[in-house]
Amino acid sequence: MTFSTSPLVIDQIIDCVATGRTPTPSDLERVAARMWRDGAAERSAFAWGRLSPTANDRIIALRSAALALEGSSLR
Length: 75
What we know:
Blueprint: H1 11-19, H2 25-38, H3 56-70
Helix pairs in contact: 2-3
């Protein structure tokens, strides 16, 4: 695994982009949770686990994580 030298950049993003590997479901979940938490200072690190699977916030965070990890096919 390729690791980030910055605490602001998630290791999974660096690894997927640097190696071209497909992200695992665990990668998507970790990146989405981190993006969601970092998006608002008042959010608890534990609140992500309480979001419904169909919550708009969860869906948007997962889509954003997929884009960060895989890139866009629109070039």
